[in-house]
Write a structure and sequence with these properties.
- This protein has 23 helices and 14 strands.
- It has helices at residues 3-9, 17-23, 48-63, 84-93, 122-134, 145-158, 176-184, 233-243, 259-269, 304-308, 313-324, 328-334, 359-371, 375-389, 391-399, 401-408, 427-431, 436-439, 454-467, 474-487, 494-499, 508-520, 528-545, and strands at residues 35-38, 67-70, 102-103, 109-110, 138-141, 190-193, 202-207, 211-216, 223-225, 248-252, 275-279, 282-286, 289-292, 355-356.
- Strands 5-6-9 form a 3-stranded antiparallel β-sheet. A 3-stranded mixed β-sheet has the order 13-12-14, with no helix packed on it. A two-stranded parallel sheet has the order 1-2.
- The longest helix is centred in the last third of the chain and has 18 residues, at 528-545.
- The radius of gyration is 33 Å and the shape is elongated.
- The N and C termini lie far apart (96 Å).
- The chain binds glutamic acid.
- Residues 39-41, 73, 237, 251-252 line the site of glutamic acid.
């Protein structure tokens, strides 16, 4: 027992682990409820891989009536941005991922298992470290950077595993009296775990994605408390996930090789192990070869990319769900409108090899997602995006709210729903030619098709104007188009024309193309009848007149 040493190192720690056990009792949750957590450093940056993990945290807690909380891992002192916590909270809110417990702002939090900022849990970590020192399971280490370097060089020469362990762990062998003296002399130190591991033994653990994994035991006397009194990631993970009663630790696969250490920490601390789910790294196809998606090279590595480009949250989450469970895509096809909560995520079905993230595929998913939206929702969300990223478009959308909504409503229901919008940043391209302010400002390249003779074109447009009536229903309009075709020497039906091409100048389709292009300059637009109806005679005439 090293009570004197423990008291000397942590004189201000008066609570015991038992006190904390009482303060944070087992959660009262239904059988099978998962307690998950999202535990980022407050860097202000949310990686798409973190979004993937946070979504999984949220889904698993939801589908088991569990709890999903936010914990901020801010123990490395160098916070990159001041507003880091808010940026995380708001960055995830964009995707409708919110937490049941945890910080709600830079200064506030909710939940009974806090504080949720690691920097505010110093006493808790120190209490557990103190108890380990007292039990002889941890010790102070006075090695300087130079001494550690020497050890490393010696290990390199000997070609042995690097690190602080066995015969190389010099401070481990010091007597308690020596330690006390050096501390009293004011020498700086850190606290290390006294690893009970052996290189010849193996540990097994189960990862829900990867199954049973076997590793050699940890033998390293890792640092648990740094010189600033704060814990390392490993120690904080064990203490926090135990006290916050996490049942499932979902984190990136880069942590897998640390599990032997974590298992050991949970053992020496006397904690029950959580389940692990190590999520695959998000990969990208780069000219035929797979590589890690990179914050530096790939804008889509940042969660903010999706908001900036106006990809709806539902589409991003649906796409992440596709990557997560391959059966999601099919489920979504069958249940296009169902809330996500109706899909049961199966952690065992997550692929363990790097998840391929494909923007083209996301684009498709997004088109399908937007195809399920009403015109009102598209207007509202598109406008919100435009207010931030395309102010001119926002002004036009507001000025012509009903017109814009009516245009967005074309082919919105029925068997052939239009799928021409994948993101709000495409709305301008999709709408602007219908706003006269924009249309008459531009030089147009008319995409004429089979009829290119300008006299013929003008004749068709003039004749069309004569018969246009805003109140015609679609059938009446279409019959009038056929009459017009016939009158001008074109076939009423495409098949009549095909059967007898030499008898006609063309067919009714050629006529409607001329009207479409004359009206919009483009060949592809939503339903022509609807566009004509929404523009109205005066505006149609104005457009024809500039030809
Ligand atoms: N702060 C760690 C990270 O950002 C968290 C890992 C974990 O979830 O335990 O990688």
């Amino acid at each position: 027992m090293s009570r004197e040493l423990a008291e000397l190192i942590f004189p201000n720690i008066t609570k015991t682990p038992e006190d904390y056990e009482k303060m944070y009792p087992a959660r009262n949750l239904p059988e099978g409820a998962m307690v998950t957590r999202f535990a980022p450093s407050p860097t202000g940056f949310i990686h798409v891989g973190s979004l993937f993990g946070a979504n999984l945290d949220r889904r698993l807690a939801d589908q088991t009536n569990g709890v999903c909380y936010l914990r901020i891992e801010d123990t490395d002192g160098k916070r990159e941005v001041d507003d880091g916590i808010n940026l995380v909270i708001n960055g995830l809110k964009v995707f409708a991922i919110e937490f049941d417990e945890g910080p709600t702002s830079e200064i506030e939090a909710k939940g009974d298992y806090g504080p949720y900022l690691q920097s505010q849990r110093k006493d808790i970590y120190q209490c557990y470290a103190k108890s380990l020192v007292e039990k002889g399971l941890a010790y102070p280490c006075f090695c300087t950077a130079e001494e550690l370097n020497e050890i490393r060089e010696r290990q390199e020469k000997l070609k042995v595993v690097p690190g602080y362990y066995g015969e190389f762990a010099v401070c481990r062998k010091m007597s308690e009296q020596q330690m006390i003296e050096r501390i009293q002399n004011g020498e700086p130190y850190i606290i290390r775990l006294k690893s009970p591991g052996s290189m010849s033994r193996k540990i097994k653990f189960k990862d829900m994605i990867r199954g049973t994994i076997e590793f050699p035991e940890n033998v390293q006397d890792v640092v648990i408390i740094k010189s600033d009194g704060l814990p390392t990631y490993h120690f904080a993970h064990a203490v926090d996930d135990h006290l916050m009663r996490t049942t499932h630790v979902i984190r990136g696969e880069e942590w897998i090789s640390s599990v032997p250490l974590h298992v050991q920490l949970f053992q020496v601390l006397g904690f029950e192990m959580p389940q692990y789910i190590h999520t695959p790294t998000i990969m990208k196809d780069d000219e035929g070869s797979k590589r890690k998606i990179s914050k530096r090279k790939d804008p889509e590595a940042s969660a903010s990319y999706y908001k900036d480009n106006g990809i709806p949250k539902e589409a991003v989450i649906d796409y992440l769900m596709n990557i997560l469970n391959s059966n999601f895509e099919n489920w979504r096809k069958q249940n296009p409108l169902a809330p996500l909560s109706e899909f049961k995520v199966d952690p065992h079905k997550i692929s363990s090899s790097g998840a391929l993230f494909d923007l083209v595929k996301l684009n498709d998913v997004s088109k399908n997602t937007i195809a399920t939206f009403t015109a009102e929702k598209i207007y509202k969300e598109g406008l919100e995006w435009a207010e931030e990223y395309d102010k001119d478009l926002a002004e036009l959308m507001k000025k012509y709210k009903d017109f814009t909504t009516a245009i967005l409503n074309i082919e919105r229901t029925g068997t052939k729903v239009r799928k021409d919008i994948a993101k709000w940043s495409e709305l301008r391209e999709n709408l602007e030619y219908l706003f006269d302010e924009v249309y008459f400002e531009k030089e147009h390249e008319y995409e004429w098709q089979s009829i290119t003779d300008m006299n013929e074109i003008k004749n068709i447009l003039n004749e069309y104007l004569k018969l246009y009536d805003e109140n015609d229903d679609k059938d009446t309009w279409f019959n009038k188009m056929k009459d017009l075709a016939e009158k001008l020497g074109y076939a009423r039906e495409v098949k009549e024309y095909k059967a007898n091409p030499e008898s006609y100048k063309g067919h009714v389709g050629d006529i409607s193309t001329v009207i479409r292009v004359g009206l919009t300059s483009r060949r592809n637009t939503p339903d022509l009848y609807e566009i004509l109806k929404n523009l109205g005679k005066e505006r149609i005439e104005k457009r024809f007149n500039i030809l």
